[in-house]
Amino acid sequence: MTTSELVFIPSPGAGHLPPTVELAKILLERDQRLSITIIVMKISLGAKHDTESPTPIPRLRYIDIPCDESTMALINPKTFLSAFIEHHKPHVRNIICSIIESNSVRLAGLVLDMFCAPMTEVANEFQAPTYIYYTSGASMLGLQLTLQAKRDEEEHDVTELKGSESELSIPTFVNSVPAKVLLDVLLDKEGGSKMFLDLAKTFRESKGILVNTFQELESHGVDYLLSSNADIPPVFPVGPILNLKNATNDGKTDEIMTWLNDQSESSVVFLCFGSMGSFIEKQVEEIAVALERSGQRFLWSLRRPPPKGKIEYPKDYENPEEVLPEGFLDRTSSVGKVIGWAPQTAVLSHPSVGGFVSHCGWNSTLESVWCGVPVAAWPLYAEQQLNAFQLVVELGLAAEIRIDYRRNKGPDETEMIVTAEEIEGGIRKLMSDGEMRKKVKEMKEKSRIAVAEGGSSHAAIGRFIEHAEAKEPKTFQNTRT
């Protein structure tokens, strides 16, 4: 019998709703007492290929807040996400009110995406506990919390590190973290850094933090967060939470999989840069030159950048030849395939794929580990530079193309260009480093053990459910599995 309701509020965007849905499904499968409502704040960024209407599941419902086009037009791109969340507070307040009035079950709490932490204000109005769902890794969480504490307790200004060669000691990292791999938002003096660190302050006010990672992947970072030294709410490493369902796209998936079926095992390098990943024509040319010189079999997801100044998803090219070197498609037709959108998890799961040139988004990182495919790191934005540093330096699960690459952040604020030589070198190391490949295969097995019964993440899910089901909020000590 359902007795407790959790309300999930994910951030808009491809990297947030799918893992939220997957976490909800896991919780519902584990405990029949739970029901879950997911409030979906719609956003209009042009065409994308995520599942718009997830499959109906018992005790799980979705409440959509339609996209308000007129409001979207008024939001400043620099403060877009915080303004978007603030705009939706009244809508969420009304929905929570209706849930409380219409439900016979207890509101066990709100599970807020890391960027939706300001919704804590709404939860407090209803005296409802809040939990944070942190969709990046444990090491990243530690960095955010550490820099927030240094700001508030030591008046440390992280924005002063922009452009410096400094390194930071962060307790969730074994190695010192170079300033060059910090998030752009952390170095933003115009409000971005304050906004991002204020989120961490709100995390500390929550009843607990679920992190999409597993103890065996980030053992150093997780151990610190689970220790009393962290001085934070209980942490639940519940990952990898992955959306492994193969998406379809007008028959193109079948075409891609048919091509992969004709390639030999571990022979193909897959280039894909996430839902927001795209490059200017000059960079596309350098990638093409690198692939041709390497002689490597390849599957390349090539996307058209959005118009400058617009927040939109990239789109497929109608004719990729317009940005590729003349004759490239003909010369590489026997070894490579250029596509648009890619069914990423299906491709990574295919036995012919032996390497992944990736932007190192956290979902993609977890997918590459789950599938046992090593990475060549080429981060673009958000926390991807830090993820790339972690994969290359901390964990030895990736080769480097350029871990401090920043889109639109060259010396004169123009697009940085990674040379064909750098790309070719990264691809060659990716496909030839046997020790790295062995490490990735070992981590693949550990990822699957973690979520199986008796595994570290399976146990963390159980602890979270016990915490959320408690009639009165409990003070749980962080414990290792």
Structural summary, described in words:
InterPro entries: UDP-glycosyltransf_plant, UDP_glucos_trans, UDP_glycos_trans_CS. The chain has helices spanning 17-30, 69-74, 80-102, 120-125, 138-154, 192-203, 219-225, 252-261, 281-294, 328-331, 344-348, 362-371, 384-394, 420-432, 434-451, 456-469; strands at residues 4-9, 34-41, 60-65, 106-113, 130-134, 167-168, 177-178, 208-211, 235-237, 268-272, 297-301, 303-304, 315-316, 336-339, 353-358, 375-377, 398-400. By secondary structure, it is of the alpha/beta class. The strands form 4 sheets. The protein has a 7-stranded parallel β-sheet, sandwiched between helices. Strands 14-11-10-15-16-17 form a 6-stranded parallel β-sheet, with helices on both faces. α12 packs across α15. It is globular.
Short description:
May glycosylate diterpenes or flavonols in leaves. This protein has 481 residues and is of the alpha/beta class.
Q: Averaging pLDDT over every residue, what do you get?
A: 90
Cα separation of the termini:
29 Å
Rg estimate, integer Å? 22 Å
Task: Write out the strand line-up for the largest beta sheet, numbering strands in chain order.
Answer: 3-2-1-4-5-8-9
> Using DSSP, what is the number of strands?
17
Q: From the helix content, strand content and strand pairing, which structural class follows?
A: alpha/beta
Work out the helix count.
16
